[in-house]
Each structure stands twice: as structure tokens, then as C-alpha cells.
Amino acid sequence: MRVPLSWLREYVEVPAQTTPEDVLAALVRVGFEEEDVHRFELSGPIVVGQVLEFVEEPQSNGKTIRWCQVDVGPSTGAGTDVAASGDHDIRGIVCGARNFFEGDKVVVSLPGAVLPGPFPIAARKTYGHVSDGMIASARELGLGEEHDGILRLAQLGIDAPVGTDAIALLGLDDVAVDINVTPDRGYALSIRGVAREYSHSTGAAFRDPAERLWEELVPGSGFPISVVDDAPIRGRVGASEFVARVVRDVDPAKPTPAWMIARLTLAGIRSLGILIDITNYVMLELGQPIHGYDLDKLQGGITVRRATPGETIETLDGKVRTLDPEDLLITDDSGPIGLAGVMGGGTTEMSDTTRNVLVEAAAFDTVSIARTARRHKLPSEASRRFERGVDPLMPFVAARRVADLMVEYAGGTSDEEYGGALFAEVLIPGIVLPPDFVQGLIGVDYTAGEIEAALRLIGCEVAAADEQGWHVIPPTWRPDLTDKWTLAEEVGRIEGYDRIPSILPTPPSGRGLTAAQKGRRRVANALAAAGLVETPSFPFTTQEQNDLHGSASGEPLPSVKLANALDGQAPYLRRSLLPGLLQVAHRNVSRGFTDLALFETGTVFLPEPGVEYGTEAVPPLAVRPDDETLARLDASLPPQPRYAAVLLTGNRIAKQPGQSPVAADLSDALDAVRTIASAAGVAIDVAQSQRAALHPGRAGVLSVAGTEVGYVGELLPAVSEAADLHGRVVVAELNLDLVLLLAGERVVAASLSGFPAATQDVSLVVPADVPAADVAAALVEGAGSLLESLRVVDDYRGAGLPEDAKSLTFALRFRAADRTLTAAEATDAKLSGVAVAQERFNAKLRD
Fold it and tell me: Where is the FDX-ACB domain positioned along the sequence (predicted)?
């Protein structure tokens, strides 16, 4: 909300020496956010001049200029190419406009002035003359976008002495402060509301511009008005109040006063002619949107009703809009003539031919107006105020104020006998404020007197406190005051936020991250520390991607389809993290980043076959669901476990002096799996398997203690090419929630033995189809507690072995907690493991 200070001073005592920054500081103290300070970006000397004479001179370029002699007032020094006449300066000025006459008073920017742009003015030679200044247009002065020629002061009804400072005369020395008004404080979208808040902050005297005698406000009768609302929203009729006044014999060609144009411009409103300017001016002043109709274009009376299916209206912006049955309309006998509270219709708009005006001021339902504005993507200054709630007592005041201004500045006559009004009794529910509630909520020991004074200051009626507390009736302009909590907030705001202590509460013991949250953080931190980059992605994908990556076989599985998807081409929730990682990899490769090591942790959505989800009705937002309702809502959602996935492509080690590039391969994906296992505190086994999206022979299933938790492998070349990734791509994906569940209670640290380890290797010949993980498990089982670690170091197939056999070499490390092992003890443990492998797989020691 932009607030010109000259306008603000009309309703609250703002000292002359107060700067815009001081005003902003005062408004910040009562809860507003400062945005900016707006000024007319121009500086003097800019004065009133009078055109004494001019000569029209055609030019070779086809343009005709005027060489003017302009009196700019008392002499301030000899001009260029002019002669002094008495004690006035006569300046020679070249002007291209032709809409003025000899004797006209105009605005002259003399050398040294700076106009908006910035556009400095200097004496310069042009068209064979030295132009000693510039005769300015309204647009050049920043008074609007119209540029029909230079600004003639007679058009504005101004007759000031020559040489008068035009900046002050036109209100161009005014300044506006800009504040951010939160949605619950719509009353502050007006000069009236901001002036009241400034008064609250500083104690300055406030004069309410809405204080008028009721006898002055009641319009005459005779104009038919009706409200027919068959589809109320939330049980509330769309229009609770409708006031119509008539002003006759207006002259739409009358100039808008310069001070009004300046104020509207500073407030961010473009001047559109005297009739529309007045309605906008009153809206900004009182916060009550106003609409004016050309009375002679109306057919019959006005009816406020809902739209019928398929009905249309052409709004003031020239667009034909198809209406929704929930839209509230202003209609006459011809049909819709306005979207109530949003925008008027084109058929009855005020124009240059308007002679009689019907002024409308109404109170519309906030929800109805907000929905209409959003439905038609038609935000307006009017809907912005209506959807926040306007003062229900203001339509009478605003309609009379518009009529008065049209009489004063548009030459009209108020028809006091013709008009109309429909209104309901305004009832504001009372609120009980318990005696110690404010102190307990805010944390400040306010006295009873301070609480009462704060509530009365903002306009509340406060009855004397009893055992229940104060009985408070909020003012009509504060629809946001609905309960004891909002009243307490007002006391804190008025008494000053600086009184509220900033003390952090002591957190209760035993709180903090859950074991699962700690585990997920450990895994993510470990992967990042290992050099992978976390890349969160949207959880939306296609059914084809879900089928490919969401199951081992690639067969169709049930997926959750969104009813209102952000992207119509990806309307399903993901069953796997890989589609998102592939998109991220594709985006990076397309931008020249070809060496990638990515990971993501996030939820996937795994609906069970045959179960229908999302059928439970959502309860009303204003009512907290009970436990039974929450249980039903939870049951209507599909399982959403959290997964972890990695993707590597390109080079693991870049080419550099003395080092050839090393491409990422399956071993790097396995290293990432081991990193996850170490951070989670589990041992993850890998066994060869097959998966629809993975390369045969380069895919493995991951398991923890015999429970499958994920997979690892290299993507099929066709899958990589479909994602525009032309190199080798290796991936891994695990059910992170399941991994952490199987990890159980995590041992933070283990005791380190002070005795040395004994290391031995063993090579076993086994059938080629026996997984290495199964052989390793047999060795671990047989070796017993002395075996500290085991890893596969070689898988040999070739000369010296049968065609259907392979040689697996394992590195074993033995250690005892209480002594130094002998070589014989280590050998016995190793042979015990070999014996188990021999029993299970017919394994033989390789010669």
C-alpha cells in the first residue's frame, strides 16, 4: 500500500519535519513491513510559464516546429537567444507540440532541471535556434502515460502567476511510503486505515474521514435493487449491502485536479479521467471499492445474483469471459453488467459521453470474491480489498463521498431523491477475554489498564471486567479480530513488540532426532563425504518409467496417479528414485558435465495391488480430525518407504598428467553400497541376479541377513540411450528404511584389540554357477569367532580349470581378543571354513 504523505496528513497529525523514513519506522512499530519510498523523480527549476507568441516553422524532415517566446516569471538571469522584458525573463523555446495557443500558461523546465528518466534539461541548439528550456507534457513530468501534447494548466483548472514553482503547484513535491499489508489486515489498504495505525504508533491526533451524519448518508429511493442468491457460500449471501447514488449532469471532460493526479500516481494508480479518478481516489482513501455506471446505459434496475451455466460477460479489459455458477454478478434487464467486486462490464462503463452516473458501493462476501478473482485470473484493486474484508458500515459513506466529489470537480448535481440501498443489520460477535490470558500468552505482565487502553485504542468496545474477564466487541473494520488470541496479539502490538522478551524456551529432555532420522543423515553425509552429489528431484514420473525401474521383471505394477498433476506428461508418483536421477544426469550432460556421481534419498510410493487409495473424504479445514478420522486418512494412503539411490557415469578419475582416465564401473557402485552399509551399521551381501533395466551378468541383488533390500548394476545400453546418456551408467537403489530397521540398535564404537592380526589367503575351486557370496558365507561360518574380516580378491576362469568351474581367492584376517594368534591357529580356522565350503559346494583347494 502506497501512502502519499500529504494525503496522510489530512487525517492524522504528522509534523512537517517528519521524514518518510520516520513514518515508515512508526508503522513498523505497529506491525507493518516497510517496502520503499516513492517520489516524483524530478527537480527544479520547473516553473509556470506563459506563451507570449510563437512562429510555426516547417522543417525538411516534414515536421513543423514552433519557435516560442515564453514568459517564465521574474528575472533569474538573462536567457539564451532572448531579451529581458522589464523584470521578467522571456525565453526562446523550441516545441514540437501544437495543442497550445498564445496566452496559455504551461509548465516550463528551465536549464538545470531534471525530469524523470533521468532527463536533464539544458540550453541546446536545435532546428536553427537555441532552445532555452522545455515546455513539458504530463508524461514528461511523471503525471501519467497520456502524451497528447504539452500540459496546459487551464485544462487542470489552474491559473497561477507566471514564475510560480510548478513542482509544488502540481503536488510533485509529495512523497509516498510503501508498506506491505498482510492478508488479515485489509483495513490498512486505505489512507483511513494507515492514518489510524500511525496514530496508534505515535499518539498523534486522528480524524476519521468516515464520520458523517446518518442523515447525509441515506440515499433516496426509486431505483430498483435486489439480491437473489440461490447458491450462498458457507451459508453467507454474496452481497450483504448494496448502496446506489445518482449524480446527474456530470462533465467527463472536466480536468482531474493536479493534486488528485499526483496522489493517485504516487499510490500507483493511473489517471483515467475525472469520473474514474474520483472512484479510485475514494477507494484508496476509505478502503471501500466503488464502481460507477453510465446510468443512461442501464436497462431497468440492478439485481445481484449468481451466474447461470454457460453465461458470459465482456469485462472492462475487453475480454469475454465464460462464467461459473459460483460467480456473483451485477446484472440489469440486459444481463450481466459486472463481476461483483472484481471488475465491471463493458456495456455500462463510464465514458466521454456519460452525463448521468450511478454510483455503487457494496459489501460482498470475501470468499466469493476471492474465488471469482482467482478463477478468472483477474486480480484487481477492488478484489484485493473485498477478499480481505471491508468495513460493512463504509458503503454509505463512500457512495456519498464519491457523489460529493463528482459535484465539486465534475460539475454534477447529486440527485438526493433517486437512489437505493439494501443492507442487513451489522452484528459483531462479542469476545470474552479472560483476566490473565494476555499475560500468559505474550509473556509480559500487562496491567489491566494497559489491556483495556490498547483494545479501546484500536476501536473495540470494552465492558468492565468481571470474573470471566473483559467482554469485547471488535470494530466493524477489523474482521480479523475473532477470538481471544487475536485480541491478545493486538495488545502485544499496540503496547510494543520491544516489551516482549526474546528468551528461547528450554527444550524438554529426551527430544531430538529419532533413530531413523539419525540413520538417514548418516547415510546421506557418508555418501556426500565419499564424493557423490545429492540431487533431490520431483517425485513425478510416467507409468512406463515406473514399470521399468519399479519392478525386477518390468511387468506393470500399480502406480498412484495424481488427479491434478503439475506436469500432464508425468502424472504418476514414482516407484523408484532412478527416473529422477536419470533426468538430473541428462540435464547435466546436456550442459557439458559428463562425469557424474549422484545420489538421492527420498520417498517412493508403492501401492498394493487391488487396493484403492485416496477414497477417504478430506474433513473440513477448520475442524481438527479425531483419531478415528486420522486413522482412516492414513489407511487411504499407499506405503511410502524412503529409498536411497546412486548413479555414476563418465570418468571416476579424470585424465591428468601421468594418469589416464578411469571410467566409473560396477565396482564404484558397489563401493557406494558399502558406504551406505557402513553408515547404517549393517553388512550388505551381493548376489548375482537379473533385472529388467540392468545389463545381464552385471546386476546384483542386495540383502541384509537374508532379506532383500535393493539392487546394484549397470543399466542396459538401450535404457541409457533413452535418457540421452551415451556412456556406461551404473546404479544402485536400496530400501533405506528397511536397511535401518534391520540394523537395529547401532553400536557406536567397538573396542580395539591390542594384539596383532594374522592374515592368510585361500583359493577355492567351485562350480561357476555358485555365487561368491555363498562361498564367503560358508568360510565365515566355519572359521568361527577368530575371523575378523574376509573379502574376495580374485575370480579366475580359464586355463588350468574345468570349463564349468571358477577359482575364488579370499583374503582372510584373524585376530584374538586375549592373545597373539599363532600361524597354526589361523590355519586351523581357515581350514575349518574350507571344510564347510567343501561340504556345501564341493569346493576344493586350488593347487
Answer: 753-846
